[in-house]
Amino acid sequence: MIDSVSDELRAKVLVDALPYIQNYTNKVIVIKYGGSAMGDDSVKVDVMRDVVLLSLIGIKVVLVHGGGPEINDMLKKVGIQSKFINGLRYTDEPTMEVVQMVLAGKVNKDLVSLLGQCNGKAIGLCGVDGMMIKAEKLQSEQDLGLVGEITSINTEPILDALNNGYIPVIATIGVSEDATMYNINADTAAAKIAAALGAENLILLTDTRGLLRDKDDEETLIPVVNVSEVPKLVKEGIVSGGMIPKVECCVEAVRRGVKRSFIIDGRINHSILIEMLSHEGIGTMFL
Amino acid sequence: MIDSVSDELRAKVLVDALPYIQNYTNKVIVIKYGGSAMGDDSVKVDVMRDVVLLSLIGIKVVLVHGGGPEINDMLKKVGIQSKFINGLRYTDEPTMEVVQMVLAGKVNKDLVSLLGQCNGKAIGLCGVDGMMIKAEKLQSEQDLGLVGEITSINTEPILDALNNGYIPVIATIGVSEDATMYNINADTAAAKIAAALGAENLILLTDTRGLLRDKDDEETLIPVVNVSEVPKLVKEGIVSGGMIPKVECCVEAVRRGVKRSFIIDGRINHSILIEMLSHEGIGTMFL
Amino acid sequence: MIDSVSDELRAKVLVDALPYIQNYTNKVIVIKYGGSAMGDDSVKVDVMRDVVLLSLIGIKVVLVHGGGPEINDMLKKVGIQSKFINGLRYTDEPTMEVVQMVLAGKVNKDLVSLLGQCNGKAIGLCGVDGMMIKAEKLQSEQDLGLVGEITSINTEPILDALNNGYIPVIATIGVSEDATMYNINADTAAAKIAAALGAENLILLTDTRGLLRDKDDEETLIPVVNVSEVPKLVKEGIVSGGMIPKVECCVEAVRRGVKRSFIIDGRINHSILIEMLSHEGIGTMFL
Amino acid sequence: MIDSVSDELRAKVLVDALPYIQNYTNKVIVIKYGGSAMGDDSVKVDVMRDVVLLSLIGIKVVLVHGGGPEINDMLKKVGIQSKFINGLRYTDEPTMEVVQMVLAGKVNKDLVSLLGQCNGKAIGLCGVDGMMIKAEKLQSEQDLGLVGEITSINTEPILDALNNGYIPVIATIGVSEDATMYNINADTAAAKIAAALGAENLILLTDTRGLLRDKDDEETLIPVVNVSEVPKLVKEGIVSGGMIPKVECCVEAVRRGVKRSFIIDGRINHSILIEMLSHEGIGTMFL
Amino acid sequence: MIDSVSDELRAKVLVDALPYIQNYTNKVIVIKYGGSAMGDDSVKVDVMRDVVLLSLIGIKVVLVHGGGPEINDMLKKVGIQSKFINGLRYTDEPTMEVVQMVLAGKVNKDLVSLLGQCNGKAIGLCGVDGMMIKAEKLQSEQDLGLVGEITSINTEPILDALNNGYIPVIATIGVSEDATMYNINADTAAAKIAAALGAENLILLTDTRGLLRDKDDEETLIPVVNVSEVPKLVKEGIVSGGMIPKVECCVEAVRRGVKRSFIIDGRINHSILIEMLSHEGIGTMFL
Amino acid sequence: MIDSVSDELRAKVLVDALPYIQNYTNKVIVIKYGGSAMGDDSVKVDVMRDVVLLSLIGIKVVLVHGGGPEINDMLKKVGIQSKFINGLRYTDEPTMEVVQMVLAGKVNKDLVSLLGQCNGKAIGLCGVDGMMIKAEKLQSEQDLGLVGEITSINTEPILDALNNGYIPVIATIGVSEDATMYNINADTAAAKIAAALGAENLILLTDTRGLLRDKDDEETLIPVVNVSEVPKLVKEGIVSGGMIPKVECCVEAVRRGVKRSFIIDGRINHSILIEMLSHEGIGTMFL
After folding, report:
1. B116 close contact with A: CB closer than 8 A
2. Which chain C residues touch F173 with a CB distance below 8 Å?
3. How far apart are alpha carbons A86 and A69 in whole angstroms?
4. Inter-chain contact A5–C12, Cβ cutoff 8 Å?
5. CA-CA 20 to 30 A from A94: which of A279, B84, B218, F275?
6. Residue B163: what are its φ and ψ, rounded to 5°?
């Protein structure tokens, strides 16, 4: 029974967290949240509470989010058929309009509002604000419409928000020089933002335990991966399917200066806190 | 022919603007833009260019917008019937979801993007960001659903944005203590924000020339109204219909410390510049 | 078994602490530590770890200490007979020399060193530094020698230390205009310092559970006392003996603007954390 | 008829100026004014109004001036015969006293006063203030008395003035280590000051249209000159006479890091504004 | 023999100055220098050295100067007849031009240059710079031409200079709203500037020992005068002639908040240092 | 007779000090004081007065002290036998406790108090504060107990104190990673601190005139020594005995970037002032 936590135990837990808190003070942490990991409202509130706690103890948290399921819902409502090519959503103009509205207007502001409810001081941004995420059309064999590729990150609006004490919550809409909006993959955006900020950590909250040696057995979780081992893991098929782009983001972030990247399970209550403020991680760490 | 503007003339115009520029330096100006005044894209770009110009010459411009027509379009697309009670949109939850998405995700970010294209440095906010617009359910005879009434304005996020050199663009979504989102009238929000900021001017961009003595004759424009004359003008029927709430916003802003309020015609090219940087105003000024 | 604390439990404890952390962020807390509450080294390290934790999560902790037992030890070593009058140490010049050396040179620097070992950034001060504690001879029926009474607190050195990120550790030596050093009661000094700083809390770490209705029964702890009730409690004999001056300090601090004063048990592990970061206090709170 | 400028036209002109304003924001522009270009009082007021306008829209304007005609007038009044050697004024001590008084006491303060009248915030300096222009005797075949040569520019007083929001107005008196005052050519001083400040532009206001291919035909104005072409232009006699030192100043400034130098006609109303804030320049630009 | 000053003596003098230095640190001192007190160059250098010394030890010195004798010389050179009405110079336009040139261009810049030679960091200003001394025509029975009366002091340019570490040297030219320059009495200007700055001291350097009970006997120096005694001293004829306006300035300054005013002898070497940094004053102090 | 110092002479002395003051403004000077040089109270007050004077005229003074005689006294009182090995005090734990108390609690705070009495703003620190002096056990042939060797200096607490306007007074206790306190030679600590701060000067106040060619004849004082000459002076026996470690400190400081080191006589009144603010030094300067 959790309610009977003794005072002594409470104190021990707080004190155990001390070295981790010291380690992260004033460091930037980029957390990617969204997709199927976002789950229902009670989990969402828990994640937001973790984010507020981290921010209160002096960590500069940047929250990057996607919103696939919400986009699908809305597309259905307006009668647009979702179409995927190699796992990427084909994005024509009417689709892009919905993507923009849902990400920047719905998911983003809902998260900001939840953070506010937890007494966090948050601000919602998308790539258009302060021209933060510059993008251009993603070149690919098959035309993907308004799917974009990041050309540069302008960290100024993020740093302004952090310096004024806000938790920046970022919807990954990109914008080109000619003001065309692009649909940007949120994992990739989080990795690029983490790299541009020289973040300490990039944390991808997903709906899996992390990288599993046998993807059907959570007991085979690989706790630590050196980025140099990744090609071998891909070859062996251990990194496969939807895990490939996530691992690539982790690797790219580390290669560009982020100290550590993590793939952890967003469905587990307080997985971020556990990963960051306790001895044992609960997902896979890339370094 | 405009293209043949002589150099001499160009210089004269710029120099004529000098005293107005001096007068407004570092002052806060709140501009309400939206609704039918927003018009087509070319007018919109012109308005944004004016905003950037004002901001460049040292004026702190805050842009507040509504988005009625865009909301109507989107409601139609998702098959929700718009319903108005005494000119206010009955807002049930599905409607509110659309209102939020369209205002904070579509209109807001489109304006920010346009400002960026004009080399303005803008940031899009809504009342949820930094808990800026606190609201509660509007009490009225007939239930209006999630139509809200502002209980307080937290100017901190707006001032942070201005101090960091951004043009804040504000979607008028309000939020209650329990994180319910409310649909807020944009004119009212602009007036309250102007008052809270101690703004120099409040400018309502509308689709009329201003306050007309005879509403069918633009030649009867009343250029200046002292707020103390307003009750008489209402009684005489000169302020009537949709003009009533707009005039009330102008009056309230002046009563709460804004120096001057203006109702001007947003459809006229560069009407803001003309009103602010030249000798003769083109709309109605309340003081 | 504490070691088997589950991750879930850990996270819950941290999250439960969130509202308390939010409440204390950037507030000043004065903790009086010393005397018999100081106990052995392992307890001391625990207290110091709590102080560092509080400081890391954004609370401005000021540590005020006494050192009676250490003074007694040293006086014995140099062959000076301790002499008490009404519970106050008669302090002739040779005694004062020892008091100064032990407090400012031994106890103070040992605590600073312990804080440093816990990765805290601390600085040791006494009332002479920056002329922080101005004092004069305490007037009393029987001459007490160099026992002093505080005439004013100069908060500048404390605020300078806090603003530069240090935990100020203060030995309660006072100094007069003519540079005479005075022996100052540490509880009184802590109360005056808390009042001068406009502190949120004053916490006296003692060797009792708090104020007990029946001083031999810890079960009769009075958790909350309104300062207006104190005279009655004195009259009833519930506040008596060595408790009287401690309670008086708590009352004076609250009267001069400190929000809450606490008498808690320094011998209990992490009693400060439990009192400040959890739902139930463990000592007596005065407000 | 200028007075009938339509509102539409006014707005167009302002908006057309937008990209130029954006381009110059926070940049330093050094304007050399004086000599025969200074003309009568009404032209002077026009130039000052242009300077104030540029300063108001965020450009950091530094005004450097000479004052040959005023010096001649004053020398005449005190009965000193002006004597020129190779176009440079032979400057004995009584002459230098007059030069100093007229430049630093008369022309300088008159310009500051005019700027003040146009609501500009200006401050008059000469090379002695803050030891800004260090100079020594100019070595030449024939002794020129107290004609000086700049040895170094101390930009501190200029930057202090700019950072405090003043338009610095600079009389080109130089001073040696032993406090001897020297008469310094204003064009040269302007070029050196522009280079030392890393200015964006150096603008020499003269009494000619710019560099003319045929000096008697204003239609042969050369709008743009690359500094590498100058030797050829000198050889061809296109740069000749009094134009040689002016062109040399422009070239030197560009060589030392100033982006562009201009020779424009100070007698034309608002020539600075036209050159800086419109599409077509009206003089000769060196880059 | 001064050269044989022993080390011991040197040190004693410096240490004796300590309490005076402590007393004046960061205080503003206005020194009026000029007229017959200015004397020859060697005395001038000595005064400037004193000013630099005071400024180096942390005193904020403002130097205000006149220049009567230099103006007379120049007027003679240009053939203008000086004309005095009740001790005030009748100032027609040609005279004013000379006054401006001599004060702001000659005396002012010579003093700045001398301070620079003593390694002081000085800046020369007149009332036109930053519109510092606002003035209007002095009303008097007989027309005095451009003799002005101060209507307000704008302390901003003086404070900007002090804050940037300069010694401001001020020529007392005033300016009206319509940019007319006025000839302002330097003693009066110094008193008004001292009052506007809330200066600690106003020091008038004159060519007398101070206020003498018998004006022909320096032994009758009155060392201290309470401003309330002045009317009696005037009545008794002890304050008379040219001493009246000087004493009035001292009184006005004290009445408007300056702590102490002094009339001391500028012809005595280092009289400022002696007055300010030693036990015994050498002139008359008003308080 | 000193009391009859004429005003003229006073002023001359102050003015003579001007170039030295200018030279040292904002520079850091480390003064080592202590041991037999510390002498009686009246000399001590004189030295403190000099330190306050230097600090008031803008020099950043850091005072480092030892306290051998006071330690001896205290050890005697507690009945510990002092034991020296090669001139270094064998320091067992009980001895170290006394060393710490006397240095950090007695000598340090007494000096701070004396500085306060002279109206100086001082703060007493030891190597433990802010973990300033990191040390480890000194390795030597014979075990010396807790005699330590500096491994690094953390200048942050010293710079924080200087930037907040305090005179830092430093007791040379070192501390290891495991919180063991070490007894550190004060001369060595002063040299390392001076080097770490990039000080202008290191001044060792001793009880000799400086380096003497014949140690029994003060007339043979060597006023200036180039550090490259030192080995020769050692070989010749001119640097010998207790002078060797002092000279080594001076040499090491210069080698590591301190401009000049001095050995001067602390028993002579105001020797620091004489050395620093006058033409002729009174001890030996190393450069």
Report:
1. yes
2. 109
3. 18
4. yes
5. B84
6. -65, -25
Residue A97 has pLDDT above 50, yes or no: yes
- Least CB–CB distance from E22: residue in F8, F10, F56: F56
Cβ contact E–D (≥3 pairs, < 8 Å)? yes
The three-class DSSP label of residue A211 is coil
∠F257-F260-F266 over CA atoms, to 5°?
130
Name C48's bridge partners.
Answer: none
E64: closest CA of chain F, how far (Å): 22
Residue labelled with tokens 């601390």: C122
Q: What is the pTM of this model?
A: 0.83
Please state the rounded mean pLDDT for residues D139-158: 94
What is the full per-residue pLDDT of chain E (287 aa) written as tens digits? 344 567 777 777 887 887 888 888 889 999 999 877 776 777 888 899 999 989 988 899 999 999 888 999 999 999 998 888 877 889 999 999 999 999 999 999 999 999 999 989 999 999 999 999 999 999 988 899 999 999 999 999 999 999 999 999 999 999 998 889 999 999 999 999 999 999 999 999 998 899 999 988 888 999 999 999 999 999 999 998 889 999 999 999 999 999 999 999 988 888 888 888 877 778 999 99
- Among D103, D157, D164, the residue with its CB nearest the CB of E105 is D103
User: Which among E2, E11, E50 has CB closest to F269?
Assistant: E11
Give the tokens for residue A109.
């502001």
Q: Do B119 and D52 touch (CB under 8 A)?
A: no
Q: What is the pLDDT of residues B210-264, one digit of tens each?
A: 999 998 898 899 999 999 999 999 999 999 888 999 999 999 999 999 999 999 9
Spatial CA neighbour of E129 closest among E157, E99, E168: E157
Look at strands E260-265 and E224-225 and give their pairing: unpaired
What is the pLDDT at residue B10?
A: 75
**Chain B residue at shortest CA distance from A125:** B124
Whether F109 sits inside 8 A of C117 (CB atoms) is: no
Residue from the list C15, C53, C273 with its beta carbon closest to the beta carbon of A49: C15
Q: What is the mean pLDDT of residues A256-274?
A: 90
Q: Which of residues 134-153 of F touch E (CB under 8 A)?
A: none
Q: Any CB–CB contact under 8 A between A80 and chain B?
A: no
Mutate to test the interface with F, among C93, C113, C183 (most CBs of F within 10 A): C113
Angle, helices E41-56/F7-24, rounded to nearest 10 degrees: 60
Q: Does A103 touch chain B (CB under 8 A)?
A: yes
C vs F: CB pairs below 8 A = 117
Contact C104 F104 (CB under 8 A): yes
What region, left, alpha or beta, does residue F58 occupy, with left being phi > 0 and alpha being psi -120 to 50 degrees? left
This model of the complex carries an ipTM of 0.92
What would the pLDDT profile of B12-46 be if each residue is shown by its tens digit?
787 788 788 888 888 999 999 987 777 677 788 88
Which of F14, F43, F61 is most worth mutating to test chain E (most E CB atoms within 10 A of its CB)?
Answer: F14
Per the structure block, which two tokens stand in for B263?
């109702």
| C/F touch flag: 3 or more CB pairs below 8 Å | yes
SS3 per-residue string spanning chain B:
CHHHCCHHHHHHHHHHHHHHHHHHCCCEEEEEECHHHHCCHHHHHHHHHHHHHHHHCCCEEEEEECCHHHHHHHHHHCCCCCCEECCEECECHHHHHHHHHHHHHHHHHHHHHHHHHCCCCEEEEECCHHHCEEEEECCCCCCCECEEEEEEECCHHHHHHHHCCCEEEEECEEECCCCCEEECCHHHHHHHHHHHHCCCEEEEEECCCCCECCCCCHHHECCEECHHHHHHHHHCCCCCCCHHHHHHHHHHHHHCCCCEEEEEECCCCCHHHHHHHCCCCCCEEEC
pLDDT of residue A80: 92
Per-residue pLDDT at B79 exceeds 50: yes
